């Protein structure tokens, strides 16, 4: 039995617990930490998983998943370090934080795996990228991949690419939500009720994502299949290009990457 502790029971932490339970882990194989007592009590009642403090999590778990905000990491590591058992696997879900930060703060030889998940974890459709630290083995990576596979898809990348992953898929859902929000507003401007516009766009987004996944065609091919000569779609594409939407998206993702680098340095 592998005992897993999730430090930080926000949206991502809760989603991981739900996924692990759904994958067959018994509630007594899991524990979590939560700074707000009311939230801890609510989650324990909902999932049947025990809330503990950070020291208890570190001293009893085989795998410790750190899912706190990056700015909260220092006090967590200060409490976790003295309690951690030798060879306990530490998995970081914190944006921008390098494995070296954990390795320097925790007992020598602690295996660390860095992960960049995203919020579709709450519906079991996360995209997570994993990278090993200095002391993480193939077995450690396989353990993390199996764990995260319960809540979505997983890829391995070198840690040097994690800031790019953070910008692309970590923040990626927000870009899609932003575009969907704008398209719903456009539908309202054109005279559609909000509920109708939302239903039209959300289902279109869902269907388009399935086409990308299931046909394995390049996005250009799929877009061209919708774009008739002198038709409505090409008129819309011309306006998107005229307003620099493509360039703005690229610049936005670069800015997110730069911010991820800054978080790691601080």
From TrEMBL:
GO cellular component: cytoplasm
Keywords: Amino-acid biosynthesis, Cytoplasm, NADP, Oxidoreductase, Proline biosynthesis
Gene3D superfamilies named in the record: NAD(P)-binding Rossmann-like Domain, ProC C-terminal domain-like
EC category name: oxidoreductase
A GO term, aspect molecular function: pyrroline-5-carboxylate reductase activity
Compartment(s) where it occurs, according to its Swiss-Prot or TrEMBL record: Cytoplasm
Catalysed reactions listed for this entry: L-proline + NADP(+) = (S)-1-pyrroline-5-carboxylate + NADPH + 2 H(+); L-proline + NAD(+) = (S)-1-pyrroline-5-carboxylate + NADH + 2 H(+)
Domain (Pyrroline-5-carboxylate reductase dimerisation): residue spans on this chain: 159-263
Signal peptide feature range: none
InterPro entries, sorted: 6-PGluconate_DH-like_C_sf (IPR008927), Acid_Pase_AS (IPR033379), NAD(P)-bd_dom_sf (IPR036291), P5C_Rdtase_cat_N (IPR028939), P5CR-like_CS (IPR053790), P5CR_dimer (IPR029036), Pyrroline-COOH_reductase (IPR000304)
Sequence ranges assigned to domain Pyrroline-5-carboxylate reductase catalytic N-terminal in this UniProt record: 3-96
Binding site for NADP(+): 67-70
Entry superkingdom: Bacteria
Keyword check for Amino-acid biosynthesis: yes
Biological function: Catalyzes the reduction of 1-pyrroline-5-carboxylate (PCA) to L-proline.
HAMAP family assigned to the protein according to its UniProt record, in alphabetical order: P5C_reductase (MF_01925)
Family: Belongs to the pyrroline-5-carboxylate reductase family.
Protein name: Pyrroline-5-carboxylate reductase
Protein source organism: Pseudonocardia thermophila
Top-level taxonomy: Bacteria, Bacillati, Actinomycetota, Actinomycetes, Pseudonocardiales
């Amino acid at each position: 039995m592998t005992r897993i502790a999730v430090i930080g029971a926000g949206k991502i932490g809760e989603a991981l617990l739900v996924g692990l339970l759904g994958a067959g882990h018994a509630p007594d194989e899991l524990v979590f930490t939560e700074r707000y007592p009311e939230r801890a009590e609510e989650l324990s009642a909902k999932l049947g998983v025990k809330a503990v403090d950070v020291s208890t999590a570190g001293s009893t778990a085989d795998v410790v998943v750190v899912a706190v905000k990056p700015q909260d990491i220092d006090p967590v590591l200060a409490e976790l370090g003295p309690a951690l058992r030798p060879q306990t696997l530490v998995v970081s879900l914190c944006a921008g934080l390098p494995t070296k930060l954990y390795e320097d703060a925790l007992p020598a030889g602690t295996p660390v795996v860095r992960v960049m998940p995203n919020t579709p974890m709450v519906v079991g459709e996360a995209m997570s990228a994993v990278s090993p630290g200095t002391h993480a083995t193939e077995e450690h990576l396989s353990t993390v991949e199996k764990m995260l596979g319960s809540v979505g898809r997983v890829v391995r990348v070198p840690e040097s690419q994690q800031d790019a992953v953070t910008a692309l898929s970590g923040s990626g859902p927000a870009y899609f939500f932003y575009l969907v929000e704008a398209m719903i507003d456009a539908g309202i401007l054109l005279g559609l009720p909000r509920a109708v516009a939302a239903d039209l766009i959300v289902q279109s987004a869902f269907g388009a994502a399935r086409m990308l996944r299931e046909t394995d065609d390049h996005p250009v091919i799929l877009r061209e299949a919708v774009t008739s000569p002198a038709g409505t779609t090409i008129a819309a594409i011309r306006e998107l290009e005229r307003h620099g939407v493509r360039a703005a998206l690229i610049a936005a993702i670069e800015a997110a990457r730069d911010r991820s680098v800054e978080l790691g340095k601080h």
